[in-house]
Structures are given as C-alpha cells and as structure tokens.
Write a structure and sequence with these properties.
Number of domains: 1
Bound molecules: nicotinamide-adenine-dinucleotide
CATH superfamily: NAD(P)-binding Rossmann-like Domain
Strand order of the largest sheet: 3-2-1-4-7-8
Helix content: 25-40%
Strand content: 15-25%
Order of helices and strands: EHEHEHEEEHEHEH
CATH topology: Rossmann fold
CATH class: Alpha Beta
Number of helices: 6
Amino acid sequence: MDIAGAAALVTGGASGLGLATVRELHRMGASVAIVDLPSSDGADIAAELGERAVFAPADVTSEDAVSGALDAAQRLGNLRVAVNCAGISTANKTVGKNGAFPLADFTRVVTVNLIGTFNVIRLAAERMSALQPLGEERGVIVNTASVAAFEGQIAGGLLGLEGRHRRHDVVDRARPRGSADQGGDHRARSVQHSPFRHAARGGRRLARSAGPAPFAAR
Ligand SMILES: NC(=O)c1ccc[n+]([C@@H]2O[C@H](COP(=O)([O-])OP(=O)(O)OC[C@H]3O[C@@H](n4cnc5c(N)ncnc54)[C@H](O)[C@@H]3O)[C@@H](O)[C@H]2O)c1
C-alpha cells in the first residue's frame, strides 16, 4: 500500500499505540483522521500536526459517530487505511479477592474492544469497497490484539474476528462500482497486530512489549 497521499483513519489515535500510528502515518505522507473520544487530546494533536490531520471525535461503538468520522476521513482523500487501536482493559480475574469479575466491566470491554473494532472494520470496509483498487487491493485494515489473547483473556475475541476476515478478505472479491471487472482479486486486506514482538508458540510465553513507536513502524 502506497501510504503517501492516502487518507487514513486511526481509532484511539489520541494516545499510546494509536497516537504513535497517527504520527508515523502522517510522517509518511498520509492524511490522517484521529478518531477518539471527545474528551481526549485529539483536537490538540490534530492542531499540532497541522495540515493533513483532523480530529474526528467518535465513540467506536456508535454507528452514527463512526460514520461521521469516516466522512471526515474521506474529506481528506480516498480512505485506504484504517487502524483500530481504541480499547480499554481490565486486570480482573474471573474470581478475585473481591469476588466474581463484575459482568458490567466485562461487557464494557467486549463492547469497546470487540464490537467497536468490528463496527469500524465493517463501516471502513464498506467505504473502501467503493474505491478503485490500487494494485492488488483497495485498502488495508489493521486491528490491535494482545498477547493476552493467547492466555484466555478478552482479546481472544479479536483473534476470532481476524480469522473471519482473513478467510473472507473483508470485501470478498467485490467489484469496482461501475466497472466491467474481469474477476481479479480486488480486496480490502485485514491484518491483526499485537504490540508484542512475539506470539506465544509451543507453550512458550513471550511477552515483551514492543511499545508504541515500534508498533507504529511495523
Ligand atoms: N500498549 C500495549 O503494550 C498494549 C498491549 C496489548 C494490548 N494493548 C491494547 O491495545 C489497545 C490500545 O492500547 P494503548 O496502550 O494505546 O491504550 P491507550 O489507553 O493509551 O489508548 C487507547 C485510546 O483509545 C481511546 N478509546 C477508549 N475507548 C474508546 C471508544 N469507545 N471510542 C473511541 N476511542 C476510545 C482512549 O481515549 C485512548 O485514547 C488497548 O485495547 C490495549 O488493551 C495495548
């Protein structure tokens, strides 16, 4: 994917992994829509980056808000890149010193991290499906998981999402609108990304955090 000149949308873009990704994409010449909660520092970051950056406040769990953020991203250019970094975490055990994991907390994490990520994937892929392919693909969607997924934590649901999208290429051989496409593999690609350098393999637990900057550069 040629990033220079493309429009990109980054959720959770006002902090941590998302902010590092915003900075890296902007440095590489993309126009970037920073999607984060209205209470975040997104407006200040967009002002600091200046040209080719906009703050698009949105809760990723809201269909209307994410659609509005995608509109803002598309005003910057053709949306070719969407990166999901918005997320929250809990450190609760299923049963801890204070009793069972509060169901409301579990529900909130699943709603933001899993349903919010899927909400952005589906709406961004829909926009990308209307673009003409650039080389082999119309766009790229990158999702953030965690090594915690391999340890039975909530992020495991995100790996399930990735399995779905890897198999189906998100937009499965969708044709460019209005074209007499000859059946080429014009896809939107979805990539799952853990900020940790190594996945757990063969029972070994490898959990060294790469940190925001290496995450963004990968
Ligand atoms: N930092 C790491 O090493 C690491 C490791 C594994 C997994 N993760 C996961 O990656 C995600 C991002 O991590 P981070 O360290 O950058 O966290 P962070 O807290 O620095 O950034 C998350 C951003 O998401 C935003 N956000 C939260 N809920 C939102 C919502 N509903 N709608 C829109 N934006 C929302 C927050 O305002 C914040 O700006 C988290 O889910 C985290 O659990 C991070």
